[in-house]
Amino acid sequence: MKIIGVDLTDLGTKNVLAAAAFYNVSYDFTLAKGGCCSSEGKKDEFSDVKPSVSVELSGGLGSFCGSISISRHLMEEHKKGSAPEELFARSDITSWMEFFYERLDVGSRCQAVTKVVHGDHSELAKCIRAIDAFLLTHTFLVGEALSLADVVCAITVDHLISISKLDTEYLASRLLNLSRLIRTVKESDVYAAYHKKLATLNSGVANESGFVIDTWKKTYSNCKGDLEKEVMPWLWDNFDSDNWNFYFMKYNKLDDECKSEITTSNMLSGFLQRFEPDFRRISFGVINVMGSDNSYDIMGVWLIKGKDLPPSVTEHPSFEFHTFSKLDVTNENDRKIITDYFCAEDSIGGVLIADAKVWK
Predict the structure, then answer these.
(1) Does 56 reside within a domain?
(2) Which residue among 184, 203, 222 closes a domain?
(3) Domain residue limits at 92
(4) pTM (two decimals)
(5) Which of 50, 61, 244, 325 is most buried, taking the most CB atoms under 10 A from its CB?
(6) What H or E segment, with its residue span, contains residue 324?
(7) d(CA 238, CA 177)
């Protein structure tokens, strides 16, 4: 499945990403601002006038658009119970999502609507207070457990705050029940997964770059000769230092670690396997097991999109045991480190390469 977002600040796009996180759905993601696919997966009369998040289904089934439709599809696909109470719960969740869209999202776009504060009697304010009043006697919006309705509610409220349509002090001091629900949502594993995914996508697409990582990976992989002579010139000619960075990484081993080549190689493999799959979209690396005679180190060079390390790296379970040092491509010594790790086959600086892993 591929999700085609309007942009990463678009509420509908964020709600679909939240639905995918809630139901643990794997997907590819791309931006196609201004494009709305028809149900047949083709551009039609609405493509240029109805921008909306859309989805392309696997197996050639087609495409359709709209955050509520997509969220409902994911819900039906992953919650297939047919008991009356289960059907009601899914319909109730959909009803809440429609309410958030029609009364909060669309309602906030009215030019007459200003920021909702204490004492405001606008329709938007009434709707927000109605949700708060409902939550006075309900822990969650639907049933007795966290549902997609709760998550979409929290994201929608955050959106209203971000566009200056809801006062944060009013929310915290007066809308106590709604504030409590939002805290509950943000403390959940589902929200953590959604937030991490959104941050990763932002780091990958926020700054469009002329440097295409997939082209570099193909250039590197297809080289049958001398990497330094045939591949590195392409990298230096096309590298975008405004949106990409190189890092030297070293594992901070304990005194009794990395004594065996096989064990150290397995440690490196395990480290790489624990990266989120999406990290490949914004990274390339050559990580080596260096050393010999029962003394080994894990060291390598990463090429990563973004001005700083993305959450995919900083939230890795073993991040704290590794040191990442940014390299300066204008510095001759740093440039040599990059070339050595990307190109050397036998040794670097007189230290043997016992094993090498190419992350691409």
Answers:
(1) yes
(2) 203
(3) 2-203
(4) 0.59
(5) 244
(6) strand 322-327
(7) 53
